[in-house]
Design a protein that fits this description.
Layout lengths: L6 H10 L12 E2 L2 H10 L7 E5 L5 H9 L2 E6 L5 H7 L6 E5 L7 H9 L4 E6 L5 H10 L4 E9 H7 L10 H9 E9 L4 E2 L6 E8 L10 H13 L5 H7 L7 H10 L13 H10 L1
Parallel strand pairs: 2-3, 2-5, 3-4, 5-6
Antiparallel strand pairs: 1-8, 6-9, 7-9
Amino acid sequence: MPSLGTPSETIAVLQKYHFNFQKKFGQNFLIDPHVLDRIVEAAEITKEDCVLEIGPGIGTMTQYLAESAREVVAVEIDKNLIPILQDTLSAYQNVTVINDDIMKVDIAALAQEKNAGKPIKVVANLPYYITTPIIMGLFESHVPLKSVTIMVQKEVADRMRQEPGSKEYGALSLAVQYYAKPEIMANVPPNCFIPRPNVASAVIRLTRYEKPPVEVKDDRYMFALIRASFNQRRKTLANALSNDPGLHLTREQVMQALETLDMNPLIRGEMLSLEQFASLSNIL
């Protein structure tokens, strides 16, 4: 059985190594075995799987993953945690710890080396300030991924699965839904962490689509349109897109495209579905 995952065990490890939490890394360690079990269950980890864990901390979830997976690669940015991980994971032969910034790691090469290029599963308890860049980095780099199961701020998890027209719907919702099917697997209150964060968290599983649900000629261009339409979300779509210096579109071009699609010329970006953005992108 994993030896970490309760408050007393976590505190004992932190005291043994005189570990100080680094605010810049947004460190909050899980201290609830039920939540840890729930994450491993949500990620559907089997003995066939190679798992990439981002931000293992002191190795709490890593132990749970190592019990269930064939192989675990844990990437930790904080060098002060490396000696702790060497200690807490010493009993597991199937874990590799890498001291690096996940944004700089060649994950495709890692999947090739550890999983013969087959899709890996990503599991992470992500610091809130870097959730979006990490998720988008994983999807946009087209690394072989089966799913991404992550603990994030509840508000961010909600945003990932919003539908058009809601206040939380935005570029992140559309980007996630283009690449993956988002499902909230568990809500996690602040008292499941040490130190306690000020916000509630949620475990969300993003199951990668074999191919995106919409046909789009150039997905980078579509995302440029999406970003521009939400950068000025109070403006009509025609104004927001024609005001964006990177797109080089006139208001007339946008109006014409909207007309072709039978869409209201005064519509705002937040009302468009992924399909509609794809159609608009293909026309423009």
